[in-house]
Fold this sequence. Notes:
It contains four helices and four strands. By secondary structure, the protein is α+β, with helices and mostly antiparallel strands. The protein has helices at residues 7-24, 53-67, 71-80, 121-133, and strands spanning 30-35, 40-45, 99-103, 110-117.
Amino acid sequence: MAQSLSLSSVSKAVGRALESAGKEGGLPVTIAVTDGHGELVYLARMDGAPERSVPIAINKAYTSAKMHRHTHDFNKMIKERARDISWFGDPRFTALGGGAVLFKDETKECIGGVGVSGRTSEEDFEIAGIVVQNL
């Protein structure tokens, strides 16, 4: 994984993920990348991706960065602890799958989050994984 996030490295990683998603022929997606504080660093929306996918992708990346976990793991934690997502006090949190946390290699420090929206949660997470692998 990445040592740090630079605009150049994020752009290349997202480009690879978009290229892969385009080759698959599935629905168009939006990809968001945030820094370790959940602030937006990069956003890309494929032609034809619905407008609603923009805030969803951003919030998936935000949640992953803030909670230091993938959104599907966050969803699992909420269910296991019988909590409502509103319990966390942050209206931007989402438990929709498709968000991935970015860790620094050697320290496992959270340096960001990736959120993908437009397909199933599983497909979104696979595409987010391409971004993570290329950072």
